[in-house]
Design brief:
single chain; 220 residues; alpha/beta; Rossmann fold; 13% strand; globular
Length: 220
Amino acid sequence: MEKIRILLVDDHQIIRDGVKTMIIDEPDIDFVGCASNGSDALEMVKLYLPDIVISDISMPDMNGIELTARISELNSRTQVLILSMYTTDDYIYNAIKSGAKGILPKQDTNKEMLLEAIRVIYSGHEYYSPNISKNLMKNYLSIVKKGSHPENFNKYFLTQREKEILKFYVEGFSNQEIANKLNISIRTVETHKNNIMQKFGFKSTVEMVKFALKNNLVIL
């Protein structure tokens, strides 16, 4: 089995230990090491070539956004997942602009969500927590109402996981069947579904499916 090589960057020992404990025993993950600041992390990226760097934003010497930009400049396969307490709009957009492929808030992230984010990003897609995704959607609608339509917002309209789950609903699969296919819990499926419905204001699954078909939100 090809393993996902992970490097963790955070200036707090307790966070490094906690995240490491969450992921180190997963059979598809190879934990290559930890760094406590951006400069050391950048050298470790060059040395170990991790698939994903999980990084905080607020760190001494070089913050997570700067680190993400530097990693992007290396033109390597390494992707960055931001795991931070700082999830205001400015931090979110700067992280995305610098090349981050996912953003999770420390205060709301559990083991299941972290592992899902790692695997989704490794598969070549983006991953944002439900709350961050909602904020992106609200700002998108606000800008559209003002007459602007920035192309980069479309990319974050629905996350890749939301698109996958929506496609399964359109194809008529149940929550349990979707959970089985994606190897996630029913609760996670329902969370993603509720997130989709809140974004668009859907009142029922039928309404969601009809809208998806009418507006080509999924490719069958």
